[in-house]
Structures are given as structure tokens and as C-alpha cells.
Amino acid sequence: MPKDIPISNGNLLFNFDSDYQIRDVYFPFIGQENHSKGAPFRLGVWVDGRCSWMGRQWEKDLRYHDDSLVTNVFLKNASLGLELRCHDAVDVDLNIYIKKIEVKNLQSNERQVRLFLTHDFHLYGNDIGDTAYFDPRTRSIIHYKANRYFLINCSNSEKCGVNHYACCDKEGPGREEIWKDAEDGILNGNQISWGSADSAIGIWLDVPPGGKVTAFYWIAAGTHYNEVAQLNRDVIEKTPDELIKRTSDYWVAWITKESRSFGDLPKSFVDLYKRSLLILRTQIDNRGAILAANDSDIVRFGRDTYSYMWGRDGAFVAAALAKAGYAHVCMKFFDFCARVLSEEGCLYQHYNPDGSLASNWHPWLVDGKAVLPIQEDSTALILWALWIHFESSKDIEFIRPLYDKLVKKSADFMVTNRDCETRLPIPCYDLWEERFGVHTFTVAAVIAGLRAAANFARVFQDASLAEKYDKVADQMGEGIAKYLYHAGLKRYARSGYKKGKGYELDEVIDVSLSGLAILGASHPRDPRVAQTMEAVRQQLWLKTPVEGCARYENDVYHRPSDSPADIPGNPWFISTLWLGEYFIARAENLQELHEALPYLEWCAKNTLPSGVLAEQVHPVNGSPLSVSPLTWSHSSFVWTVLQYTDKLNSLKDKAFLPISW
Known about the structure:
Blueprint: E1 3-8, E2 13-17, E3 22-29, E4 32-34, E5 43-47, E6 50-53, E7 59-64, E8 71-77, E9 82-90, E10 96-105, E11 111-119, E12 130-135, E13 140-145, E14 148-156, E15 164-169, H1 178-181, E16 192-195, E17 197-207, E18 212-222, H2 225-238, H3 240-255, H4 267-282, H5 297-302, H6 311-323, H7 331-340, E19 365-366, E20 369-370, H8 376-393, H9 396-416, E21 428-429, E22 436-439, H10 440-459, H11 463-483, E23 485-486, E24 491-492, E25 495-499, E26 502-506, H12 515-518, H13 527-540, H14 573-586, H15 590-593, H16 597-605, E27 616-617, E28 624-625, H17 631-655
Antiparallel strand pairs: 1-2, 2-3, 3-4, 5-6, 5-11, 7-8, 8-9, 9-10, 10-18, 11-17, 12-13, 12-16, 13-14, 14-18, 15-17, 19-20, 21-22, 22-25, 23-24, 25-26, 27-28
């Protein structure tokens, strides 16, 4: 089930699913310690002797307020005669989640409406040794274990504090889930539970005929009791309404700080561009880690998560944010990368948000020989992104301490980590984390990283080092043409496997071949690149009503059982946008530039109503697949829009240049 609306302040992240259930609660690191373990926190309504939980019986429209990370959710149950308008926010300064609930009575008689909110916490990601209890000092429910505390409270127009509650054991013989216990409209008032504990609170509202009543609900997160008790006092003193307003005002200021012209792009593209920037910010931990995705549903299928910092994904996000005018957001990201860089000068597969090494499925032995279990493009793209950051910020004081410990150290690794005969990189794992070899995308990324390192060397007046890095990049560019071009197919191959003095080429067509053009390793109008990209477009574009571009031929990752047998794979947002980027890169006039518009349009058409982009969509019905949101998808949209507007402006400037006689 996709996560439709994430809200976050960089320390505390809540995810809602398409049924408007809270499904993920991350604290104090974004992407680490999911205190719900993906279990649903439910919202239910009891009225006239009937109880209904958010689900199929409800008409739902899950969105955000424009230019904000405050939600604007509409819920209607015609059979109950009720409408709810909900607004959710994580306070921009305090680690507090707040919900405003407006209940509208659609009938002509006064009615008592009872709201129920349940909490299935798994503190530290498990439900062993948890405690839930009613705290009379704060008139709240508190869940705690060790150094994690969550305080739950509520208010209506008449009073503040929890008056209806239950703390229960959620597992064991004869135990009933707490949301089922609430269906009779009454909570049992049990004051404490431990071990595997859940809880529920109720808010009683008397709603006049055709009228509205408002209630508030909040969860404060902290590391000890006094912290959450103080946060609770802050909510009461400042008022929940004011905290929601100040959070909304901040995000409006954040997203509108850059005055930018979008040329001839339609409003739907501009709206998705701004929404993508905001969603990207929800997935960035305040200590620097940029997380790939924080959708816990993936755990049920792969027993692992996307809640890691991949160098590649983070680099694409950091580059897009810097180019969009948000370079400051990612300064700690580059510090993070410098901190976790290995002694050899490379990044490993991925890292936890606290900087520790994450799970790794790349073996250290291949064909009996010791190898580094890395994807070298991740290391290279960090330097590529850092140069874009510097071009955008011109902050040389920020770069200075990174020059030795990140730039030179990584670049020197890429210089030495080469095959002595071909001068191409030593084999590593590909960007899709599936194959071990020499990959065209990886080589293109390394060239881009070395060019960035050479640029930094020139900034710091290190001419000999700049020449060295540029020379190695030139050699690799020659090596791509010599060793990874398939003369028989008249296009580039995605990978090569060392055989004698050359490589056995992988003939599978792969959208990552677009890296040649979009990373600047080859000229986009080079006939060899053009033929390669035409093969990508012809063979990977889906011939279904949904359309979109797959990653590569016979891609089975998250492929649905009901997908057509003749498609190459599911359509991905990044694959589709890479096609768009290629057409932008090669455009020499407005007509050619407009060839990129359908790829942006495809993304806008396949976004969720909230503006969230998944990793992939179903090839037939367009529903989101894999994780949602995926930061790489959103950063690709932002980057492609910016590339489009830059090219549009350059073409217009070129058109108005004075004629030289």
C-alpha cells in the first residue's frame, strides 16, 4: 500500500497510507527506528451505534495544502452522514505531530460523534518490553521503552486531555486487537499494559444539525518523560492551531523563496516540481543522511528496507536541490559522505542514517577472488553533485575541508582503481545492484566525478592535479568507445566482462546507457549515442495504455503476475525522465526541446493525487509499485525541469544574439 502523504521535520517522520492510516513513525533519525514497524494506527468514527474505520467505506481525498507540508485530507461516509476535514503536520521546530479534525454533521439532528485513534507502537522496531499507560499528570497516554517516549493527547472546544482510553496487550491467547474493542463505542479504561502493548483514545463530540465541531490530537516524541511532558505543555500553551499555522507558513516561505521562471511548462509541471522539493525535504535527516525511501511495506517482501543512504541516490537528490536553490539543505550530506568514506576512498553499498554501515548483499569474493563490494558510481556521483553544489553556492569555505578528505581521496581512488590494460575501472557492481562487471553507466559516472575533481583542483590552484584527473577521464572516455561500443549492434553495450585483453559485451538494452549523455561522458549528438538512445526508446518504451519506460529488457523486479508477457518490465519514473533528459541535452532548437515534454507529462499523469511519486507503476493500471515516495524519482523530476528551463533560456538567448558579419 503506497505512502500517500509523508510529513517530517528532519527528526520525526510520519507516513500515511492510502487509507489515511499512520503506518510509519521514525524518530529520532529519519529512516532509522520505525516505531510502528509498519503496523497501522487507525482512525475510526462511531455514531448512532455504528463504528467505521477509515477504509473502503469512506470517500477519501489525500492531498497537501498548496506549497506546504501540512495535509489537506477530505473524508466522507455517506451512510454515516459525516464529513471529516483533517490537517496533519509535524511541527517545524518541535518533535510533535499534530492532527486537526473538523467533523461535519450532514444530518438535520444533533448527534454525538466519537472519534477513536489507535496506536500500535513497536518501540525500537519490536514489541518486546513496551509499556503503555495513562499518565494523570499530563492526562495523556504514554508509550515508552528505554530512551524512547511518545505522549498522546487531545483536545476539543471544551477541554484538553484524554478522558476515554484503553491500554491493552495486543498479542497472546484470548487477546483482541484494541481497535476491535472500540467498535462498541466504549473504551475499557484499562490504565496500563506492558510487553506487547497498544492503546486507543476516544474524543467525544456533540455536533449540531448541519454543523461542524473541531478536535485536535497530537503525539510528542522524546527520549525521556520530562521532554515529552514539556512538549505537551508547549502544544497547550501555543495551541495546536497555531503550531499547524506556523508550520504551514514556514513551508510556504521555504518553497517560494526562489523566484524562478518555468518558461512554457504547464502549471501541473510546476506544481509537481514544488511538491517534489517539499517531499524530498521530508526524507532528509537533519544530521545529513538522504534516505532513498521510508516505506515500510517493502520489508514485508524483501525483509530489508530502502531506509538507507545510497551515495548514488543521495547525490542525485543533492544535485537537484542545489540547482533548485537549496544547497544549504545538503551541506550536512556531504559532511556525512566524508565521514563514512572508507580508508580506500570509496563508499560501500549503503549506510544507516546514523552513519553506520548498512546491510550489504554484495559478496567480497567473485570467482574466488577478493573484490570490493561496491558500486563505484556512488562514489563518483558524490563528487559530481558536490561540484554542482559549489557552482550553485560558490561557498569555498564549505568546500575547503572537503577538498582533501572527500574530493582528493575519492578521486585518487578512482584513478588507481583501474584495469592496467584498458584503463577502465576495475569491475564492480552495477547501479541496479545486480551484476558484477564494467558498466557503461559506472564509467560515465566516474568520468563525471573525475571532471568534478579536476574542477575543484583548479579552484584550489592545483594545476598538476587537475591535469591528472582530466587525463584519466579522457582515457576512460576513449576506453568506452574502444571497449564498450558494440560494432555489430551499432550501439553501446550496458556492460562488459573481462575476456583476454578486451570485454565480452552484454547486449541487453538498458536505460542506464543514457548516462553517457546526461553525465557528459559523450556528446548527446554523437551518432553512436543517438543510435543507442533510439534503441533504448524503441525497446524499453511500453506498448500498453500506461506506457512509460522500463529499466532494461526482461526486468522482473516487482513485476506483477498480471502484467503482459511481452513488456520489458514495469515503467519507472527515473527511466522515463532519463529519456526526457537525453532529448533536452541534444536539443538545438525549440522543436527538439519540446520532444522532452511527453516524458515530463507521463510523470505528472502517474503521480498520486498528493503529488507523491513511487519507484515504479503497474504496467496496465498505473498503480504505484515498490516504494512510495522514492526520493530518486522526485529528484529526477526536479532536475529534468531545471535542465529544460536552462536549455529553453539558452536557446532563446541564442536566437536573439546579434548577427556577426
